[in-house]
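Predict both folds.
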Amino acid sequence: MQQWIIRKDLESGEEMEIFRGKVGQMLLWIQLSPDEEWLEFSMQDFNENREVVGRGFYAVPSQGGDLRPLVVTSDPAKTTWMFFWGPQKKGFFYTTRASNEEEEAILWYRPTMESGQPIKISLSIPVHRDLSFHPDGMTFAYTSNSTSQSKIWALENYLPKDKNKK
């Protein structure tokens, strides 16, 4: 099976291919960036035995263009889980966890789409979902679910202080 992303102008009916996956790739959870310039999606690569051999988060310009890998792993013991665009057009958040469903997830932040070191935001806690930012971008909340309980978490001042600011 092959999947692709198509942009359609509802007034003119014109269609434009934005991205075409290869056979053996599955696209999941497509979302538009807050500035509407990027489409982010999760993609899994499968081998001929239909085993997952790679997964990650990717972005492609919403008007079409080159695919940009954001976070990719080929380690079968690890998985990329949830992706969230950051507030005020700043970077993105994502979670990673072991493939074991009982394993806790780790929330990460990357300040830009360019390559760079991600910042670990939280202690390991059960799976993160439903990330939502306060309009000021300084506080966010998310749900955390496990087999025994669900919680709502709120974090303030979650980013490291900029050493260059006074």
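Second protein follows, with its predicted structure tokens after the sequence.
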Amino acid sequence: MADLNLTEEMVVLGGLKGWNTHTNIEVVISDTLKQGSILDSSGNELEQADASSSRYVVNDLNIRRWLEEYDTGDTLLIAVVNGGCILNEDACVYSDGDITADGQTVLRNYKNKFSTISLFETGETISEDALYINGDLLLMNGDTMINTLGD
């Protein structure tokens, strides 16, 4: 059975059908690397000032375990978002802070969209099986998610 760590913040909220949303790249381990870190095309973690070089977002459930086993400067093969995803804006970060508007613009060039998660929408009465993303309702029905998000 996979050793899943479900305490990590969710980076990907959805993806385009038929799109190669993820790939594996060699990533250089840094002191600040984590789930949601924004990388350049060479696999290096970026700072906000380098937002124009944004290419990938780390989305690997094993990242925490690997960071405990390897040292800063080591190179690992890690799963990253390639494009065509709805990304959790709150989980995508640079080494020195949150994602910037410039970073979002660059990552949108790879068919990504950005959203945020909230469990309850102000003024709404919802059941425990409902989830809102950016005010748009995603209905949860057993193992099936019905996406009501528009373009």
